[in-house]
Write a structure and sequence with these properties.
Elements lengths: L2 H19 L6 H9 L9 H11 L2 H5 L3 H4 L7 H25 L7 H10 L6 E7 L5 E9 L9 H10 L4 E7 L9 H15 L4 E9 L2 E4 L7
Parallel strand pairs: 3-4
Antiparallel strand pairs: 1-2, 1-3, 4-5
């Protein structure tokens, strides 16, 4: 049997296993392998899938990486990178929709999931604000500052000004640590305190400050710092 027939037969078996078990019967690298068959039609993509898993530590690490990181893996070209980026964006929009549906809940995880999908894999620090109304329903969100690999400049005044502009009653502060470590720095704590004080003057609540990274997340509210 030719290599072409073997490859086609293997791909069809993967698709059949996926359809029959709704994906439950496939390992992570096989899920990724199946995805890559749509962008790499004439090659054995199993080695590429395994390289991606090995390099990024699993599907989560892959989804938190950037196209530049993906394309450093041998055999993965711009078309496959675009496919992964599309899947990544779908993932982000899904969590954004869930967050909008749920609003802010005292123990809800939808904000955490969206924050991680949006910022955790960035190679530089970025600061995002999620704006909520008086009923804790999400109005909008946006990155208001981007910085370097270990620093981002942000001022409480700007946070409050943007909150006033969209008629928000509450804000959730979010930023990432590209190093992966999510423990807050002295500057993170000082910014949280200063923003909270500024918000009180205009009846704008700081509901949480979330730090996301490849090692997880840190919530000021959950740790009793708010």
């Amino acid at each position: 049997m030719s290599d072409e027939k073997l490859r086609v037969g293997h791909r069809e078996r993967l698709r059949k296993r996926f359809r029959l078990a709704d994906g439950a019967g496939l390992l992570d690298y096989e899920i990724l392998e199946l995805l890559l068959t749509f962008s790499i039609p004439r090659r054995d993509v199993k080695p590429i899938a395994k390289k991606l898993i090995g390099r990024f530590g699993g599907l989560r690490g892959i989804l938190e990486a950037s196209p530049r990181d993906w394309e450093q893996v041998a055999g993965l070209g711009p078309l496959s990178s675009t496919l992964l980026r599309l899947f990544q964006e779908i993932n982000r929009r899904y969590f954004r929709a869930v967050m909008s549906r749920d609003g802010w809940r005292q123990n809800g995880q939808s904000v955490i999931h969206f924050s991680a999908a949006k910022l955790a894999g960035l190679p530089h620090e970025a600061f995002m604000v999620i704006y909520l109304d008086a009923q804790n329903e999400v109005i909008q969100d946006g990155i208001i500052s981007e910085g370097t690999v270990d620093c981002v400049a942000i001022y409480p005044r700007r946070v409050i000004e943007t909150a006033l502009a969209c008629h928000a009653s509450g804000v959730i502060l979010v930023h990432n640590h590209p190093s992966g470590h999510v423990k807050p720095s002295k500057e993170d704590k000082a910014l949280t305190t200063a923003t909270r004080k500024a918000g009180r003057l205009l009846d704008i609540r700081v509901l949480d400050h979330i730090i996301v990274g490849k090692e997880g997340y840190f919530s000021f509210r959950e740790r009793g710092l708010l």
